[in-house]
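Lecture 7 notes: from sequence to structure.

We start with a single chain of 473 residues. Read the sequence below before looking at the structure.
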Amino acid sequence: MKITGITELAKIHLEEILQTCSAFILVNSTFQEENPEVTYEIQTLCPWNCSGNGICNSGNCTCYTGYAGSDCSFDLSAPPTITHISDFGFCDKSKENCDEITVYGKYFLENMNTFCYMTRLMYNVDGASLATESYQIGLQERTLFEGFCPLQYSSLRPWVTFFQFNISNDDKSFTKTFNVYTFQSLCQEYQNNSGDIYYTFKDGFCFIDGSCVIDGETNPKNLCDICSVANNRYRWTLNEGLCQIDGVCFARGEVQGTNFCRFCNPSSSNSTWSLDNEFCFIRNRCYFRWEPRQLNSCEICDPDQDQSDWSLNKDCIPTSEVSTDSPTESVEPIIENTTILESTTKIPTTSTEATEPTWVTTYSTSEKKTSSASTSAHVSTTPRASTSALTSATPQTSTMAPIEVSSASLSETDIIAILCASGIAFAIVIAIACVVYRTRTLKKDSKTRWTIPNVKNTTKEIPGISLMKYTKK
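Now the structure, written as tokens:
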């Protein structure tokens, strides 16, 4: 008692003495007969003599108001006596949940309306206070000498969380204040600077959503997220080798369901689908290179031109012909004036105009050629007169401007078809000419003689035969 200063230790010895006396009297009938008064006093004693907080009656205590228990030792208004708390107030969340703090003392009775009054303090990694919040929660009893206060955390996910608490039964009398420090030894290192407790960051770790994560570790809730100390120690970093599209993670090369032409290509984009260079994606459907459009073979998938729409098939481009009704350019011939020198007597002249035809050659649409019109020569012919002479006439020359004509180029198939058709037509014409010539020759040889008129030495032009001399015989 001198060393500890706790007088309650004496009660243990006094109670032991009373129990020894009761046992001695109970088994010693001679003592009971010789000392009836002492026997009665000992047998009717109450535990701890009701602790001075009640009346002892035949071994039972009747407690005064505000006290309870078999010995009336419980002060209903006073909080439990707390001797110590678990782990001296330090809780490592890397090893346990740290969702409660255990308290030891006496006495933890049921239905006593005992509450834990909690203050939650949150700090950032730089030591700055993030927030301070308070709440109260009922104390949970395990035994008369043990209970616990639940620990509640904020959604803010701070670097560390400290708790301060005390206990009361009536919100008037409180125990002393206790401190609880929660931390994570995996990535946080404990520091105590003259009673000022704080934690520093360990190398090679991230601190994300209130938890320590090793550098390079994958997020179990999203395989596309990893811990990258170099990028951000407090947030998940997107894995460059994967794609995260519409909140779903895909591996490199993974296709978009049934759309086989779109796949995950992180080198192009890790947030959207990439299109394969050998396919077209038109109206939410995939097409192979050169695949034609349904019911229209002149539209095909040509990824080199457009991967999101149909491209024109070059073999289906129509060949346009030169229209003579609508010339691209109207050309008026240039006619030079012709002066004719006449004598006193006018001699009529006849003029013939010889004009060669103009051939128009079509070229491809990308090339334009010019064909020249032939020169028309006007020749005047004057008959001779005995009394007058006619001067020569100046010939007229008409010059036509170049005509520019263009048409669509012919494909190789069309050219070959035209050449073949031309060759066949030419062969047919030659064959017909040979047959006609042979027939006419046979008919001519079958005649005996040409009928010659009764003429004497003379010449006459016979129809169908050149001028010949015939002599009557």
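The helical segments are 8-27, 29-34, 36-43, 412-446. Keep this in mind for problem set 3.
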